[in-house]
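Supplementary Note 3. Input sequence used for the single-chain structure prediction.
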Amino acid sequence: MSKQVGTTAVILAAGLGTRMKSSMGKVRHTVLGMPLVVHVVRAALESGAERVVVVVGHQAEEVEKEVRLWLPEAPLEFALQANPQGTGHAVLMAETQTEGSAKVLILNGDVPGIQASTLRDLEDSYNSNGGKLALATSTVAQPTGYGRMVRSGEGALTHIAEQKDATSTEKEIREINVGLYLCERSFLFEALHAAGTDNAQGEIYLTHVVPHAVSQGLAIGTVSVDEGPEMWGINNRVELARVEAALRRQVNERHMLAGVTLTDPDTVTIAPQVTIGPDTLIRGGCRLEGNTSIGEGCTVDEGAVIKNATLDADVHVKPYCVIEDAKVGSGTAVGPFAHLRPGTHLEANVKVGNFVETKKAHLKAGAKASHLSYLGDCEIGEESNIGAGTITCNYDGVNKFRTVLGKGVFIGSDTQLVAPVELGDGAFVGAGTTVTSNVPAGALAISRSDQKNIEGWVARKNARREKKKNESKR
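The predicted structure, written as discrete structure tokens, is reproduced below.
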């Protein structure tokens, strides 16, 4: 038996999503850079759920892998719905995993806009109405496709009429079922085991919990959700874009109210879990994804893409940079057009300029690589200067090797550092050099051949060309 917990969240994520017209399962599609189902799992955990069971079906292994990748520390379990027979049947697939739970919170995996605050409101309604069942409703302008909330003349909920089963009168009802439930566990599975399949789709409906509660004279709590992204499910790519736009506005407004300047918020995409310090300025066309953290007083210019990165205070990211799985120290300038690949660590007051690419590179305080260089698997000492066109040759076709530079090293332009190699403090490397062995501290390394000037060579070349041209005319 599973350990005793207060609330287990069950997230329904088994659907095929045929209207997405995609080879990828619906809940794996992304909003603000994060899979739909991950948004829902995060909301459930933030609301206080102690365990989450994701019911999977189509592409089950891929969905599980994706959720675990995004939330490696979360208390997750997965249940398989191999032969879908309705929403109630999907919840029944999680019956074993919910053992030991007092309550079961049920959410749909394709509604990424749900907020933890609404889930907490749902629990308040559950507690104040006898602690058996509470669910979310919304009153909408166009209810077609949704289950209708059917109430008695006194306003008490009697049942939910699904679109295909609803009478013409019931179809006029504008209060709809959001698909969000909080149930006492024993009541929930009693209701689902008692549910039949006498309906238009021949399925076990989760909505059967409502008439089951009514038959027992139980009070049913309800929470009203505004029409909008909290109740919008996603069935096609038009709806995907609509939800992304709405959530983008919500996230961006939250940051702006907290002291972040977005010069063109309609074109800036910020993942929900990103943190940004006050007095940071972010220009148009930027994407901030994953577990990114940006400090105070930073500037992120147009077109930057930053994912799973940490930027300390006063960092300047110039236009069209890509930064992923990297750390950037305070006062550092990056770009334009720089690419910081995973494993990059730039300490304070570093400069990485235009068209510089780094990977597993540690540039210590004050180091500079101003343009047109590749720095991979390397350590660059304090105040060292990397000239244009420098390459750390870190791969021999089989293995990767490291390049280590001490403090105050000067690398001339168009230099190749063939790893493994170390350069001591204050070493100089002349332009055009290929370094294949260690350079002692304070030494000059130079390997280019001596220059030779051939006097009159250009005139002789031009004379030969003119002669050949005249001969061709004869």
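The CA atoms of residues 57 and 429 lie 60 Å apart. The longest strand covers residues 175-184.
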